[in-house]
Design a protein that fits this description.
Pathway: Amino-acid biosynthesis; L-cysteine biosynthesis; L-cysteine from L-homocysteine and L-serine: step 1/2. The protein is of the alpha/beta class. It has ten helices and ten strands. The structure holds 4'-deoxy-4'-aminopyridoxal-5'-phosphate.
Length: 330
């Protein structure tokens, strides 16, 4: 018989797939790390498992405790899944820009979800950061993983995702391209790859226009899970060799192309990262191997990025996006 002991054993060891269509005219090899194949559907399963492991080991999280975290969804799913397996309760706090689909996924695992306004300052008592701080003090046995400062977040990528990439590319990887949210992915993988390659691997961050990583003021953008309006502890500012600024329009157009041209149904931050990877690929040598991280799948964005009316309403698409019978028949 061939099976795993529990769903948690399915985390990590995700495959790399070559991008063949959106890379037209590019000589370098562009490989995508398909993180939506993790059991919770995103790259965040990895950090959830490691943060909980380390909190159990340190005694910060005790049997029957409650996990409280401000999250845009994916970290919540990872935490909710691990918590379900280990008998913890979960309360998640997220901004109102997060799709209802994503919030319902959290509830499906048995978690509680508190929704806060996006358009307020992080210091405002209504902000999702502040609300989660308050809940920590009010709930007995509460533990806040804090993916923004918890060293287990980048550590999971340093010890797991980074070595996976080095092994999968047989040490031939020349560039890593990743979106930056908490900074855990780029910091952990980037640090490992820099060390193992003697500084040769180039680390490239992709960032939404308006976010601080690419010099913005933190003004709002619509792509979810990436970009920040503050500098998290888990982002190592010395690591990235380059940051590529990507607009929402570019991110969403590429996200849709990945589904239609590569058969990869992914989220907006994946589209954004691929735009960054193609910017790198244009200047790359033919034998360069560029790896781009696809953090999550597209199912959570069906009513937004993959919805023509939503795209049109926000000015990302000309016309209705629908094809009439007349157009098809000529
Ligand atoms: N994409 C999505 C959809 C995410 O949820 C996140 C996590 N916030 C990221 C990208 C960025 O990853 P990291 O937090 O490791 O920088």
């Amino acid at each position: 018989m061939q099976y795993y002991e529990s769903v948690l054993d399915l985390i990590g060891n995700t495959p790399l797939v070559r991008l063949n269509a959106v890379t037209e005219g590019v000589a370098a090899t562009v490989l995508a790390k398909v993180e939506y194949l993790n059991p919770g559907g995103s790259i965040k399963d990895r950090i959830a498992q490691r943060m909980i492991d380390e909190a159990e080991a340190s005694g910060a999280l005790r049997p029957g405790g409650t996990i409280v975290e401000p999250t845009s969804g994916n970290t919540g799913v990872g935490l909710a899944m691990v918590a379900q397996q280990r008998g913890y309760k979960c309360v998640f706090v997220c901004p109102d820009k997060v799709s209802e689909d994503k919030r319902n996924v959290l509830k499906a695992y048995g978690a509680e979800v508190v929704v806060c306004p996006t358009a307020v300052d992080p210091e405002d008592p209504r902000s999702y950061y502040k609300v989660s701080d308050r809940l920590i003090h009010e709930i007995d046995g509460a533990w806040k993983p804090d993916q923004y400062s918890n060293p287990a977040n980048p550590a999971s990528h340093y010890h797991q995702t980074g070595p996976e990439l080095w092994k999968q590319t047989d040490g031939k990887i020349t560039h890593l391209v990743a979106g930056v949210g908490t900074g855990g992915t780029i910091t952990g993988i980037g640090k490992y790859l820099k060390e193992v390659s003697g500084g040769k691997v180039q680390v490239v961050g992709a960032d939404p226009e308006g976010s601080v990583y690419s010099g913005g003021t933190g003004r709002p953008y619509l792509v979810e899970g990436v970009g920040e309006d503050f500098w998290p502890e888990n982002y190592d500012r010395t690591l990235a060799d380059r940051i590529v600024e990507v607009t929402d329009a570019e991110s969403f157009a590429m996200t849709r192309r990945l589904a239609r041209e590569e058969g990869l149904l992914v989220g907006g931050s994946a589209g954004m990262a691929v735009v960054g990877a193609l910017a790198v690929a244009r200047d790359a040598a033919p034998d360069d191997v560029i790896v781009v991280i696809l953090p999550d799948g597209g199912r959570g964005y069906l009513s937004k990025i993959f919805n023509d009316e939503w795209m049109t309403e926000f000015g990302f698409m000309g016309g209705s996006g629908e094809t009439t019978v007349g157009e098809v028949l000529g």
